[in-house]
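Incident log, structure service

09:12 report received: a user says their structure output differs between two submissions of the same chain.
09:20 pulled the input from the user's history:
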Amino acid sequence: MEYGEICVMTTTAASEAVAEILYEVTGESVSITDRNDLLVGGWDYVEEGLLESYPDEAAVRGFFPPQNKERVEKETKKRLAELKKYFPDCGSLKISFSCGDDGEWLENWRKNFKPIELDGLVVCPVWLESDSKKPILKLNSGVAFGTGSHETTAMCLKLLQKVNLKGKTVIDVGCGSGILGLSALLLGAKRAVLVDFDAQAVAAARENAALNGLESSCVFLNGNLCDDVKERGVVAANLTADILARLAPSLTRVTLPSGEVVLSGILRGRLDETLRLFVANGFEAKETMTEGEWSAALLVAPEKPL
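09:34 re-ran on a clean worker, output below:
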């Protein structure tokens, strides 16, 4: 099937932020091609001529149905202009378009994934094997929702491991592939509520739950994030600063009194403003974490909602 491709040229530092924008605009997969990955990735050698084949800037690509080109272009330009306000080192931000066949691209996309090993578990794409002795979460998330290597997801998982999840319910807000809620079950949680406004995301989460034999411990909700959740628990939300800001007042309805909330997907330049907003809603910041240009935070909900 034919797909459209948008490519944005940017700096290494800004590449993850641009990828987040393309993911939100297209609703599909993204990829990053960056020659600096070869230089800092611990390679013993690089094949002669390989570096020269990479562009000077990082190339961030997003994929979408061809009929959506006009909307994708307009929205991407708007979001990139907003990004410059918080992230001046963005490079050229040159945009180009092309089209191709998604079968060939999917095969190449899968080659880039390796198992992701964390302290308490391993996240492994279903097409790969892991011989780890830790609990293994297998994911078959197609190309839309990721398998855990992105800094925002990895930080969310690291902070979740700091929470005592034994016997608790974990609410994965904006669940995507379900990686956070399903990982929480392997880390000791009793129940996971996986909620997303995107029906495709909920279907992917359900598929991954079944793949790992966890479906009976899950509740799947296709709805307006917190508005449709009717229970309380530990909350994990890997979204964006703007979406988190809108959710801040309503999160107290789904958190346990003095319960934990893990937030991620926040550009490091917007961490302070995001934390101030949550503190104004009664939350207490316990720990923050930053990797690259992204930040995450572990918060404690108020004992009584404001």
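09:41 both user submissions now match this output. Likely a transient worker issue. Closing.
09:42 reviewer note: The chain has two domains: 2-110, 116-300. Residues 38-54, 143-149 have pLDDT under 50 and may be disordered.
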